[in-house]
Design a protein that fits this description.
Layout: H1 2-22, H2 25-48, H3 55-70, H4 74-94, H5 101-125, E1 132-135, E2 138-141, H6 142-168, E3 172-174, E4 178-182, H7 183-204, H8 208-236, H9 251-273
Antiparallel strand pairs: 1-2, 3-4
C-alpha cells in the first residue's frame, strides 16, 4: 500500500506542477473534472446509506459554480448556491414521498461541500494571474504561488501530523470520528504547516509574518477538512470515498484537507496581501 501511494505521488506531483504553474484552461478543466468525480463519490456514499440525493442538481451546481469562479464572479457564486437551495426545496415540495427533507438536506450539503471549495481553487489560482513573481524557482504567476502556499502548507501539516502522531501520539484528538488522530499529531501538523508556508513565502519574497500566520490558519483548517470527511465516511459506513487514486483512495480522500484550507488562503490573500 505504501509503495502504491509513493508511485501515485511520483507520477502525480510532476503533472500537478505543470498544470498549476503553466496551465490556464487546462488547470480549470482539471479542477472541474476533479469536482465532478468528487460529486460522484459523494453520491455513491449517500447511496450506501440509502439516501437518494438529486445527482443532476449537484452536477449542474458544480458546473455553474466553476464557471463563476473561472470568471472571478464571487457574487454570482452566492447566487448559484441560492439557486441550488431553491431548486432542491422545490423538488421536495413536488416529490415529497420519494425526495424528503433528508434527501434535500444532503443534496444541498453535498453540492456546497464540493462546489465551493473547488470553485475557490479556481478563484485562488486566477487571482492576479497576470502578475508574475520572481521566485527562486523562476517567474511564476502570483495565483500559482498563492495556490502553492495552500498545497504545501496542507501537505506539510498532513505529513508532520502523521509522523509526530506515530512517534509520540498519546492523547486522542477525536476518538469517535478518527481514532488514529492525536493531539500531539495535530500540534506537529500545525508546526509543519507554518514551516511549509514560511518556506514558500521566503522563496517567493512574501512577508514572513503574514506567512507564519497564514500557516497557522492552514494548520487549523486542514485537519477540520480531514475530520469533516471522516464524519461522512463514518456516517455512511465506508472506508474510502473511491479508488481512483491507487493507494490514496478517492478524490475526497485526497483533497479533504485542501478543500478547507484553500478558501482560508484565498480570503487571507485578498484581505491582507492584495491591498
Amino acid at each position: 500500500m505504501l509503495g502504491m501511494r509513493i508511485l501515485t505521488a511520483v507520477i502525480g506531483i510532476p503533472i500537478a506542477i505543470v498544470i498549476i504553474n503553466y496551465g490556464s484552461w487546462l488547470f480549470a478543466a482539471t479542477v472541474v473534472a476533479l469536482a465532478l468525480v468528487a460529486w460522484h463519490e459523494f453520491f455513491t456514499m449517500m447511496q450506501a446509506k440509502d439516501i437518494q440525493i438529486q445527482y443532476n442538481i449537484g452536477l449542474i451546481g458544480i458546473i455553474l459554480a466553476s464557471g463563476c469562479a473561472w470568471l472571478g464572479n464571487t457574487q454570482e457564486l452566492v447566487m448559484v448556491m441560492l439557486l441550488v437551495v431553491l431548486v432542491t426545496m422545490a423538488q421536495t415540495i413536488l416529490k415529497y414521498k420519494t425526495f424528503g427533507v433528508t434527501e434535500a438536506a444532503f443534496t444541498i450539503l453535498g453540492t456546497m461541500y464540493i462546489s465551493l471549495p473547488f470553485a475557490h481553487l479556481l478563484l485562488l489560482r486566477f487571482t492576479d494571474q497576470y502578475d508574475y513573481m520572481y521566485t527562486a524557482l523562476g517567474n511564476l504567476s502570483a495565483g500559482a504561488v498563492y495556490l502553492w502556499l495552500a498545497f504545501i502548507g496542507t501537505w506539510a501539516s498532513d505529513t508532520l501530523a502523521y509522523f509526530v502522531g506515530s512517534l509520540i501520539g498519546r492523547h486522542k484528538l477525536c476518538p469517535d470520528i478518527s481514532p488514529g488522530k492525536t493531539i500531539e499529531g495535530a500540534g506537529g501538523g500545525l508546526l509543519g504547516s507554518i514551516a511549509g508556508v514560511v518556506a514558500v513565502g521566503h522563496l517567493c519574497g512574501l512577508p514572513l509574518v503574514h506567512m507564519a500566520f497564514l500557516g497557522l490558519l492552514i494548520g487549523i483548517a486542514a485537519p477540520f477538512g480531514d475530520l469533516a470527511e471522516s464524519v461522512l465516511k463514518r456516517f455512511t459506513g465506508i472506508k474510502n470515498s473511491g479508488n481512483i487514486l491507487p493507494g490514496h483512495g478517492g478524490i475526497l480522500d485526497r483533497f479533504d484537507a485542501i478543500m478547507f484550507s484553500v478558501p482560508v488562503v484565498y480570503y487571507y490573500i485578498k484581505a491582507f496581501i492584495i491591498m
